[in-house]
Amino acid sequence: MNKKLILSIGTLLLSGGAWASQTDSGSFQIDMDGDVDTIQVRADSNPNLRRTNFFTGLNYNEAVFERAPKRSNVRLVYLDGSTRINEHWRIRHVLSEAWLTEGKNQERTDGRVNFTIAPRYEHWVSPKVSWFAEPVYIRGVEASNGLATQELKLKPGVQLTFGQHFISTTGDYQFKWRERYNREDNDNWQAYSADVNYVYRYSPQFNFGISGTYSGTVDNSDYEFRRKNYNVKPFVRLRHYYDITTEVNTTFGREESGQHWVGYDYASISINNNKRITRNLRFVANAQYKEGKRNGPPAGVTDWSGGDKEELQFRVGFNITL
User: Which residues form the signal peptide (predicted)?
Assistant: First the structure.
């Protein structure tokens, strides 16, 4: 698969708008594993409803470089979901552990433990308008390297629903710290990101839309930490045979960092599947292929990167609702 094929698929996904219907219904939402930042249907305050939803499983990523050894990452996700307390409050919680294999001898590092907790307040102004505010705390620890990272995000968002049209926008401001045990040269920096998402809920069996993301650092005078990333992602969602839900999406973007703003132009295609087994259990199987074209530094400056790269990523597990 190459970038031209990914582009063709992306164009096809965008053309889904030609199939739009004018039937007015806000109940055609198709949910997928990973929908954490948007609540498209107003929460019911009934205390008997299921309140906790989380994913547990395995993520695998492998990257092959033009002029460097391959790199693979295995992440065991113990818990990735949220618990609703009442109509306005819910708490997101994530706990995972990752192992990285890289280098000429494919050496494997000890596990990195990541923990996230995020209380979120949601408020519906009307059946068509809602907003939320969410502080997010993230901590990662690499015991073998004596390294710990912490991150605090302040994330607001607004959601608009007009019949079958759904629009959401979120932003966040990030405070990041990197600590090295037994050393005094710890680091801290700040970053931000913004997302816009549009969904047309054509029917209970078919949704389509497009999303865009931009992220960057606040202080671009520090070459070590400055970076930016922007992309667009058209997608379709289908509910089809045997109660399987599938999303196909393509992403086109660019990432840059460092003194000369070098990085990658990238394109990816993802096929994500959810299969409902019982009322409380769904099987999740996702796959992604990604290409990165290296944008090197100006002439006369050495490029220390691995050059162009290709990546494969898989996510397999269960989504559990209690």
Answer: 1-20
